[in-house]
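Dear colleague,

Thank you for sharing your sequence with our group. We've completed the structure prediction you requested, and as agreed, I am returning the results in plain text so they can be pasted directly into your records. Please verify that the sequence below matches your submission; if there's any discrepancy, let me know and we will rerun it promptly.
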Amino acid sequence: MEKIAFLGLGHMGSAMARRLLGPQHSLTVWNRTPAKAEPLVAAGAVLAASPAEAVRDADVVITMLTGPAALAAVAAAVVPELRPGACWVEMSTVGPDVIGELAARLGEGVTLVDAPVMGSTDRAESGRLGVLAGGDAARVEHVLSRLGTVTRVGPAGSGAALKLVLNAAVLGGVALVAEALVLAETLGLDEDTARTALAGGPLGGVVGRAFAEGVHFGTALAAKDLALATDPARLPAMEAALEHFRRAAEDPAVADEDITRAVDRIRRPA
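Please find the predicted structure tokens below.
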């Protein structure tokens, strides 16, 4: 039986790990806050006390962490414990440079695949994520396909790169919708009329995401993703969007809430 270790059980990680429970695999999980693993353990997963313990005998290691700093901390513990033949699937949003640095640290015989995902918690729960796989994903495609539709996008690092492009577009669009509604209010337009008109135009998809319910993309994580996207290239519009999300995330009541709360804050600053 293939042994899978899943590290990082936030909103997305918990939903994704649950998709991997079943007779096809044994599943070991780890999270910095162990209590978050309790529902998975009740459903059949094994809780590891540390990242090193989680991966020691694993055939496939999956990480879904908050960002580069969290990944670096986990990597320091995990890399010495990976056995030859193991495959590490890095699914966090960290950017291609971090993937390159991680690949350079791995021992001989360990394969690294970068496979960040598009979609929120609703799609994670139902196995309908878009998985952006960079590198040689053939060996783990049967695992990734349980999470959603796998698209092979190119060599190692390309999945991480495309994730930044797509997230920047979505988050920039959400910030633009918020500003458009500020203009509508300033000009005296009815909010429902303006939203309906925007939803029927080219920004329809991001209008839906700006006001979505039952999904989760934390505002602080959105700011982190835009910071990663604006680091390698000069992107003035995205830098403006980054400032919006950073200011919203300064409020502890908003930082871990879905970006719909950031839309409210952009429209009506405290």
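Summary note from our side: The mean pLDDT is 97.

Kind regards,
the structure core
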